[in-house]
UniProtKB/TrEMBL annotation:
InterPro entries: EryCIII-like_C, Glycosyltransferase_28, UDP_glucos_trans. PANTHER family: STEROL 3-BETA-GLUCOSYLTRANSFERASE, STEROL 3-BETA-GLUCOSYLTRANSFERASE UGT80A2. It comes from the Bacteria. This is Glycosyltransferase. It comes from Microbacterium terregens. CDD domains: GT1_Gtf-like. Residues 269-398 form the Erythromycin biosynthesis protein CIII-like C-terminal domain.
Amino acid sequence: MPFTGHVAPICAVAQALVTRGHDVRVYTGAAFRRRVESAGAALVPWQIAPDFDENDLSATFPRVVGKKGLGQLLINVQDVFIRTAPAQVEDLRTAWERTPWDAIAGDEVSLGGALFAEQTGGVRATVALLPLNLSGTHGPPSGMGIAPGRNPFTRTRDAALRAAVPLISRPLRRPLAQARAAVGLPPSARAFDKVAFSPRLVVASGVPQLDYERTDRPPSVHFVGELRAPTTVAAELPRWWGDLDGRRVVHVTQGTQNIDPSDLIRPALEALADRDVLVVVATGVSGRDELPFAVPGNARVAGFLPYAELLPRTDVVITNGGWGGVLAALSHGIPLVIAGGDLDKPEIAARVAWAGAGVNLKTGTPTAAKVAAGFDRIMADESFRDAAARVGADLRSRGGAPRAAELLESLV
């Protein structure tokens, strides 16, 4: 799917496959052409499928306006992932007829790839770029931001929630059925995750520590840590980069979606304005190097920042909980303060807190006082940094993109 947080790790896997001698094409939005081609792959752009701007979803999908929480999640899944799938299938068929491929791998919301593989009987894998959202027999359903129960009462709660999933996901049934019918597939009672995830191979970003150490994952799931391409070109650094020298650095980010800076960036800046730290803010939009409000003297702002250079110099990350950024921080052993409010962010925050590697603020719009309290907990309790180091060591040991490429090779 044409989101920066999806394209970047997919391109890392593509680059690893190219390095191993394979011909790779990446089907995604035209805005990512340079990123795809820099990985050595060829772009297959969305054409019949409605190529959209991730920073302005409502321009293409007007129903997402004003939606929050579960309402936003269900609308996003319906309109962005499911209803675009038949057109994705048409694009993929055109590409297939031009030059067939041996295997197709898609992220876990690229329903078009899943339907095309089902339609043609082709070999398919899933590269999971989000917290693993496979249904299972233990714990609560993924996505609710609830840690698995540890006593009879909470285990009963988990079982009740699992039983309620068909009712909760009922709004997805009709769009799924319509998408299948539109591409000539027979009706199916399978839920979204059973359609989207390959039953043969799931290459999952992350580590079991960030999956509640669940024991009900199928043998097709292989955790590979962080999917990141090696840095080969020196990044252009902001003019103020030298200000980081000798300072305790706190990085603040709201990712690339739901990026109203008043949600998290403003309260974080207010919380840390009088602290002896340098606050480094990423706005999440290329070229947007300023904020629409005054910033304190200990803050520096840029659109995007080179994590390969920034994270080794960062002490704490304050984030809305985007999975890619969380994995990047933890790979460097950095503890997190997470304000996850929408989509998969509450789930990510709950997983990091369960692993002991961060503080879950349990809201996407915290007050400055709440951010300050979370930051103070991190600074006062070394267990957060110790847990982040453990998770980071596991992430680094899993092989990353080269291991993902090795697993995908096994398909053919």
